[in-house]
Write a structure and sequence with these properties.
This protein is mainly beta and 130 residues long. This is Carboxylesterase type B domain-containing protein.
Length: 130
Amino acid sequence: MKPPAMDRRHFLKLASASGLLLPSTFSLAQEATVDAETRFGRVRGKRINGVNVFKGIPYGADTSGSNRFMPPQDPAPWSGYRETFDYGPAAPQSDPASGRQQDGNESENCLVLNVWTRGINDGGKRPVMF
């Protein structure tokens, strides 16, 4: 005798009851890479739950040496894709005299943007957080 076919709804009930499925608040993030074009070159970021995330995109050249306290200059253009998966350096905030340290990467060369947006090159206007 052949067992009856199990429909999707019946399977989901059984899987939920047995603990095979996680509650929706614990859902796993869906991630993929996404590419975009900037004035200085192409960047590759991540698409996480429908949001395109680009971290550490340079918008200015190195600010040390003769560039210190000067208006920002354009960064050197790059070829190929620049991976923008991680945050760039933060402006120095630590105070060595007091022993207070800022967590993470600090550098004077900190002219980078972190961008979150839902759309790229689709003609739509929407807010962009950076």
